[in-house]
Each structure stands twice: as C-alpha cells, then as structure tokens.
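SEVERITY: medium
COMPONENT: batch folding queue
REPORTER: lab tech (J.R.)

DESCRIPTION
The queue accepted two submissions in a row. Attaching both inputs and their returned structure tokens so the on-call engineer can compare them side by side.

ATTACHMENT 1
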Amino acid sequence: MLGPVILAASRSDKMRRFVSAAPGTKQVVDRFIAGETVGQVVPVVEDAAAKGLEVTLDVVGEDITTVEQSYAARDAYLELIDRLKELGLGAKAEMSVKLSMFGQALENGHELALANVRPVVEAADAIGTTVTLDAEDHTTLDSMFAIHEELRKDFPKTGCVIQAYLFRTEDDARRLAAAGSRVRIVKGAYKEPASVAYQDKAEIDKAFVRIVKILMAGSGYPMIGSHDPRLIAITQELARQAGRNLDEYEFQMLYGIRSEEHVRLAAEGHRMRVYTAYGTDWYGYFMRRLAEKPANLLFFARSILTKG
C-alpha cells in the first residue's frame, strides 16, 4: 500500500524539499541517477558498452511549467546526441523522452511537444540511433501515441512505451505490434485510478504476460522492461514459442537495479539495454523508483537514519 502514497508524494513540493534536504538522499539518488551532466554519464555508456550492454538515456525533469523550460529540455537532448556523435557511441545508446518535459501539458502542448521532440529524433537518426517515447499517466497517452505515429512517418524506428496496468493496453499492443515497430512494455509507475488500471499486483503481472504474448506474436520488436525473474523467464519461453531469435527482442532494466542480471543476460546472448537517467531534476524519477519496490524505500530510510 506504500506505492500510491509515494507516488502522491512525487508531486508534492513540500516532500520534494524534505527529501532533497535529507542527509542520506544523495547516497540513494546516486544509485539510480548516473550523474548530473553529459560529462558524467558518458563514462557510464562506455562502461556498459565494454560489458556488452546497450543503454537508453533519459534526461530527467518532466515537471516543467514554461515554454522556455521545454526548449531547454530539447537542447539538453541535442547536447547529449552531439557528445555521443563525437565519441562514436550512437550505436550503443538510444534516447528515452517524456513528452511532458517537451511541453505536452502546457497551452497548445501537443503541437509544442511534437515541435520540440522532432529535432531530437532527427539528430538521433543522423548518428545511427533512435528515440523511444516514454508513457506517462493515462491522460497523456492519446497525445503520445499520436505524436509517435506522426514521427514514424519519417523515422519508423521511433519507439513507444505501453503499461501493463492499464486496461487499454492489450488493445494498444495489438495495434502497435506491426512490422517495424519498437514497443517497450513495462508494468507502470504512476498513480492511476481503479477505473482505468489494475490495482492488484497479481492482475498486473497477468496482464504483462498477456501483452508480451501479443507483442511476441506480432511483427514488431518487443522491448521487455522488467526486473522480475519470473516474468523474464516467461518472456524467454514466449519468445521461444513465437520462434524469435535472441536479436529479435530485448530486455531492459533500470540503472542501479539488478546490475549482475544485466551482465548475465547479455552473456547469454540476449540484447540487454540499461535505462539510464541523469540530470539535476531527479526528484520525480527517484520517487517512482521508491514506489516500485519496497526494498528501495527501506534502503532510503536506512540511509537517512545512518546519516542523521
């Protein structure tokens, strides 16, 4: 029951100030956030490549309130892409973006987000990589899917994310599981009402498996976002049943979580991509990581107590 409480706190300015000031926060944040600058995250990409891993890079900071901030978000990704180009790392690193960070929630936000994300997708394509549009709360999804469809007209490798806990997602998966599509399936990490989303973990897991089965049976490229050993094993079996080779789907896990498993899956021949977040506005991302797994919250609480 802690998850919904933590997700509500992720939107609280008062909690943001408290968490940011807590003595043990930095130790825990450093576990999930690869750095604050492009210069700090580049060695993480290089280290992952040396281990046979790939990454998807997320510049954190979706809670923007001005058009100027949306331009700054766009420019932060363009700076990242320029640096990856200089180092020849484009083939090992793609980008993940949240359209709220590109102005989706502002006035005329759909058009603004599309205008901001397009040059990022263009720049990524120019260095041999691509962009995946992250899923956010359910009220934003129709806009996200429309932008995804528009971008794929010129950049067909543009990916998107679907969330197993939403009732709509099985239909979305059937629509998206077409040739050339790239779809990441995750459980979901936002506070959603019972009218649109499963609330029980067991029901979410069942939905996750049903959706993976749809994606594996389709003609697209599934990206399986999970740290759950049972779901990973089920995914491997569903891929085998669908006759998929190891390079016809991939696993994705978060930076700082089950790092040994990242390496193990890659060593077995799987494509393994590490979702790697960086930047200074880490609070919302950090709180969702705490909400996803009680052990993360216990780790944070111990850090505060031992540093207090």
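ATTACHMENT 2
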Amino acid sequence: MVEPISQEHFSGLKRAVVLGNGLRLAYIELGDPSGVPILLLHGFTDSARSWSLTAPYLATGFRVVAPDLRGHGNSDKPEGCYTIPEMANDVRFLIEVLDLVPTHVVGHSLGGRLAQAIAERWPHLVRKVVLMSTSAALRERRGWLWENIHMLRDPIDPESAFIREWCSGAVPVDENFLAHARRESAAVPSRIWHSIYYEQLAYDPSPLLQDISALTLILRGEEDMIATEEHQAQMKDAIVGAEFISLPGQGHNIHWEAPEKVAHLILTFLKRP
C-alpha cells in the first residue's frame, strides 16, 4: 500500500544544490537512495510539486529526484537564459552533481522537451526515457495559450480565470494540490512566462529526435489540446522503437488526473528488461 504525501510535507522535503554553472536548483528526493534513479522533469511554470501525486508510487525501489527547473519554484530565476538547450544543460549538471548517472528520465510537457534534449545530447547519462504530454513541434504565435501569456503582467493572480484553467485537469483533481499548483505558477514572474514561451517559438527540436537511442515511451491523454495527436505521431515515427500509449478521458496533466495509473505504466516500462 502506497501512502500519499501531504502537500505540506512535500514542501518540507525541498533541498538545494549549486550546479557547475553556478545556478542554484531546488529539488526533492524520495525512495531508496541506493536504487536506480528516476529523474522527474516538470512542465512549464510547475515545480517539483507537479510530481507529488505520482512520485510516491514511483519511489518503491527507485531513487526518485524531482527538481524545480531554472526560473521555477525555489530555484534561481536569472534574467536569462531560458532556451531548451540551456535548461537541459542545467539538468545535465544536476544529474552529475547528484551522482544519478545513468538515470531514467521522465518529462512532462516542457520537461519532456528537456528529456528529449538530454537523451539526444548526452545519451550516456540516460537509461530509458518517458515523454508525457509533450511534443517536438514549434510553438505558435497564436491561440489561447499565446494570447494569455502575452497579456500576463506581475503580480499574477493565482485565482484568475487563466491560471485556474492552466492548472486544471480534464477530470477532477485534488483541490488542495491544485491550490498549491496555482500559487506556484502565479509566483513565476511574467518575464519568465514570456521568455520560455518566446524561446520555444524559435526552437525546432524535431530534427534531433532521430538521435535518441534510449528506449522511449510516449504517454498522452486523449483530451490533451496542447500536445496533440499529430505531435505524438511525429515523435513516435522519428524515435526508433518508441512505444505510444494514449489514455482515454485524460487531458494534458495526466499525472495529476490519474497518478496511480500513470505511475503503473511508467514502472512497467522502466522495469522491463
């Protein structure tokens, strides 16, 4: 029986480390310190908390590490830079300084883009890769997300219509968790919302997908309107041997909506010889 972690207790687990590039990253560690590592990379404007509902299921027999990415949560928020390669380089330093080599890498949304970049650039650091609700497509300068991010100004209201929609699920999600998630997303300065989104308007990761040699699982909720079915097909076709699982009735935040099921799918994949 896996015991859930309260959001308050999860907050108290936060540690910090200074990377080789001088950046201070906060992170949370769970599970067996001597177990095979699983690195969990959260999505855009989330934090390590994004994994609080799922991580307890993954921590049985594994060493689970979930950082706050650059600009997020309790990590440093420099003026720049917020490109995918630079943020992936932070994660490379973290893998090395915490002695996680080689590690499984699980990334959600933005974290999935970083997982792709790590597997492409530093394959010796990676065991297997799980790409959740993510894509290798160029971002667009139009649509609901662009329009709302473009208008953001500080301070951001955690109870605004946009943040409530941004931090939600296609099915009901624990409200205490969502309240914490909304506050943390709203605490990300608007300059970082803008910078990360703008950088992805100019970054096309698709040509590098063929360089991923690690065994890869792609997970998506069928109701996900951000990482579309077309995006998933592109990744599956480009990554040699990639597996794809679609979850009916689930949206973009599948690890919030169905944490136990998602953890089971991830563990089944990671434990397979």
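NOTES FROM REPORTER
The mean pLDDT is 96.
No errors were logged for either attachment.
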